[in-house]
Amino acid sequence: MDIHEYQAKEVLARFGVAVPDGALAYSPEQAAYRARELGGERWVVKAQVHAGGRGKAGGVKVCDSDSEIHAASEAMFGMRLVTHQTGPQGKGVYRVYVEGAVPIAREIYLGLVLDRSSQRVMIVASAEGGMEIEEISARKPDSIVRAVVEPAVGLRDFQCRQIAFKLGIEAGMVQQMVRTLQGCYRAFTELDATMVEVNPLVLTEDHRVIALDAKMTLDDNALFRHPQISELRDKSQEDPRESRASDRGLNYVGLDGNIGCIVNGAGLAMATMDTIKLAGGEPANFLDIGGGATPERVAKAFRLVLSDKNVQAILVNIFAGINRCDWVAEGVVQAMRDIEIDLPVIVRLAGTNVEEGQKILAKSGLPIIRAKTLNEAANRAVEAWRNDASHDVTMRAAL
Ligand code: GDP
Ligand code: MN
């Protein structure tokens, strides 16, 4: 789960990281009012969306007066902010954050990630932070500073000092840097984050170290341990297909293709997507319906996959160990009867009670394409989708 910048800053501040004074607003009037409350002469208005790259897309504006704040936030509210991280559909802006402007002397990049190859939390930093970080990491990969944290002892102060020295931070500010790194690391581990990113972490003209931007991703599987963090969820920022799925306990990731997949098990779902690609098709989604797939669950999965208008064929691939093929078959039949599905449905069943499952499908009288192997299933699905697509084209030509 991602959270907003202002939320991540609140969280990091609780762990001792310095952040600018700021306040949230839901309207341009409120934004101007909040700025007056904060005091000062210069403010920054920042669109709150779950994506970076706002600065270049018009989502961050430095303002010198009430009226500028009003105008800047008026332009942001209700717009869909398209940045290089949002995809072409962008993300809706429903909240803005107003902060007192900070006199920046230097911008540093700081990120904490879960590094899969070392199986450790890794700190990544660059002396050249700010908006061009992707470009810098591609152009000058050697300028990136990395440190791996040994979980048994945690992040040590000497490691923080080493990072600070490598970034060329002057001696007087090293202690603040240690405090910032330790704060980010504690927030990361105590809240089960998978990513904490501060870009830029700024050194100010008056020698302070301040997190000017903050991004945080939390591990969904650990959210149950942090009810207060779960409350920070903002569904307006999520892919509606994915939030609907997570509300129903299904593991779904939306993709751009047209063959919908209903599979049990994450590994099998990945293999199914690969096989569809090998057969020349494109999967519309990843969907793991999980172990005990009751007929109701299968029906829910069908509804979810069908809610994606790009789907032109559905491939059900079940390898039943704990599952039972007859239950899944019942689910498929029930779903196809309840929901009017006018798309080709290809079903491949294997494992426990497979004969019973096949019988249920055969007896249903529904136009289900049955396949014996995954390969066959993928080929039939791609074939069916191609026929369906060409049918669309002839229909369109006829109109
Ligand atoms: P992002 O583009 O979504 O990553 O948004 P950021 O919060 O990182 O802001 C983008 C850029 O705006 C930063 O790299 C800064 O250069 C600038 N910026 C943000 N806040 C301030 C501020 O308080 N003072 C000044 N002078 N610049 C700021
Ligand atoms: Mn940023």
Give a quick summary of the entry.
With 399 residues, this protein is of the alpha+beta class. The protein has helices at 5-14, 28-38, 54-57, 66-76, 133-139, 157-166, 171-190, 227-230, 240-247, 266-278, 295-306, 325-338, 354-363, 374-398; strands at 2-3, 22-25, 43-47, 60-63, 80-81, 91-92, 96-100, 104-115, 120-126, 144-149, 193-204, 209-211, 215-218, 251-254, 259-263, 285-288, 313-320, 345-351, 368-371. The chain folds into 3 domains: 1-19 and 103-238, ATP-grasp fold, B domain (D-amino Acid Aminotransferase, Chain A, domain 1, 2-Layer Sandwich), CATH 3.30.470; 21-101, 2-Layer Sandwich (Dna Ligase, domain 1); 240-398, Rossmann fold (3-Layer(aba) Sandwich).
